[in-house]
Every structure is written in C-alpha cells, then in structure tokens.
Amino acid sequence: MAMQARADATDTWREVAAATGPADRAAAEEGLRLAYRLAGLPGPERIVWVGSPREGAVLATRLMAEKTAGRCVRDAVRTRPWAVARERVLGRLGPAGWAEHWALTSAPLWDGTVILTERIRTGVVEDSAGAAGGEQAVRLALLDAVLGQHDAAWLAAFDGQDGGEALAGIAAVARAAGWWWPYEKTVIVCERPVELHRDEAGRLDRGDGPALAFPDGFALHAWRGMPVPAAFLGELAGLTPRRIREEENAELRRVMLEYYGYDRYLEESGAEPVQRDEAGVLWRIELEGDEPLVMIEVVNSTPEPDGTHRTYWLRVPPRTRTAREGVAWTFGLEEAEYAPQRQT
Prior knowledge:
Elements: H1 2-17, H2 25-38, E1 46-50, H3 53-66, H4 74-105, H5 107-126, H6 134-143, H7 152-155, H8 168-176, E2 180-182, E3 186-190, E4 195-196, E5 212-213, E6 219-220, E7 222-223, E8 226-227, H9 230-235, H10 241-246, H11 250-260, H12 262-268, E9 273-277, E10 280-285, E11 293-299, E12 311-315, H13 323-330
Parallel strand pairs: 1-3
Antiparallel strand pairs: 2-3, 4-5, 5-6, 7-8, 9-10, 10-11, 11-12
Helix pairs in contact: 2-8, 3-6, 5-6
C-alpha cells in the first residue's frame, strides 16, 4: 500500500509538471495567501498575473528598480518551510528510509524537470532585452522565483507525508499555476505553458514549431533536447545535401542530418561504401568542421511479413574501419568478441 501511494504521488506530480493550459487563478491565489500565512507573513497587497516566466522576470526587475514591491520573501515562504518539512520527514524515516523514499517519489521526476527549468531560465535571459538593469538584473530576478508547477519534482516527496503540512501553500500554487515571485507587497504569478512537446526521453522536441510555448508568445524551440533557432526549423522541410554541407554550426548540421535521414543523405550525396563484410556495409563521408559521418548498413536477416528484409543504418564512431567492428561496437563488444549465432 505504501509503495503504491508513493507511485501514485509520483504520477500525480508528473502530471502537474507537464500541465498546460490556463492556470486556475482562484486556486493559485488561495495557495499564495496560505503560503504567506504559514510563513507568518501578512498577505500581499496585490497579485499580478503574467503570461510567462520571461514577463515575470522583466516585471520583477522593474518593480525592484522602482522599489515598489517590498523585499523578496522567498526564503520565508519557500526555503524555510522546505527545510522544516524535510527535517521532519527525515527524522521520521531515518537517512536510509529518506533515501529510499526520495528514490521512489522525487528522483524519477528530478532530472527532466531540472533540465526543463534551466532551459527556461536560459531562454528568459536570452529573450529579455530591454529589461530594467539589463541581463544581470534578469538573472538576479530569476533567483527570487518559486517554480510553481516545476517544483513538482521535490514536492512529490512530501505528498501525504506527516511533516509536509508546511508546504501546503506552495503545493497548492504548483497544482494551479506556473512560476511566481513573492515580495512583501506584490506577488507576480505566471500562467502555465499552452504547449509542451517532448520526445520519449522527456527532452524538449519538435520539428515544426515551438517545443514549449506560453500564452504571451515566449517560446523555446528544440530538437531532441538541443536548443535551435525558430527560423532554423522552418528550413528543415526544404533541406538538401548541399544545404547540410554548407551549415557551419556542427550541432545544427547534426540536427539536419537526423531530420533528413542519414541513409538518404549518404545516397543523395553520392557517397560510396569503403568496406563490406558479412556483418554489413561500411559508409564514410567527410564533414567540414566536424567528425566524419560513418554508418553501417545492416540488412535484417529476419524477413518482414511480406517477405522483404528491412535495412537498418547504424551510426558508429569515426575510428571504425570495418562493418563487423561497427556492429560489435553497437553491442558494447570488440570486433574479436562479436560472434553472433544469427543476426536479427
């Protein structure tokens, strides 16, 4: 029962972290006021809603420059309650029990959520030209933010736990809204994203538009986790081998190759095989400013339902000299160790 409850909490907070669509403003504002009360603070005089973390950070820099919001109270409403809750749960479970509990609840959400929040921070800084005080002021404003739904990774560990009551306000905001900035007189609260697109590994990923988009237009573009310019995605549908070769940025060229297809690129570039053996065919093509593209062409020995045999292309290290060596590498073996009974 306890293990199932932990799994349920993880699933619930995974949904919170990935939630898109309009915030529940009433629930979020109630949670904000609860967080202030639990911290022993009077409620804020006003709550201001914004369309994205970018708009929130820019507004925070302006309010700080104008000195109209009061001091930041993040430590009181977020850091101290977290420390109190953690100490209580740790004291009850013990170090080993806490480590096991964390591994079952928060750890499955941690890496993906942290990567996403760091990507948002980077995008906010890059897209905040004209903010009061410049880039440095925006970076400092981001330190004042509480992450709302993106605090899900660590909030999962306190869901339903004796001692987690101090986090009730923070958790309520996380379930209802995005990032927020707590100051004495003013709270800035963000809407949630309107779009979120990720691949099977949980990385931001979309080839025909923003991978993460907020209602005010702030957006992040990415291909399998790698940030790319918005204009770059518009080029992908019209790619040619020549355009791929002419791309000077090696990382963007790799995105182009993945989108275009390694096999198609080799075929249309006029590449010729450099070696073949019983394992397959070794192909190699030089790329200016990047490591060579080396691929193994492998034919599946198991026929498809229609009797045909599917061809697979495996990218292998540039040092590969034979097809057999390349196929062995894909299994984590040296060429001499690779002795398949039957290729599949």
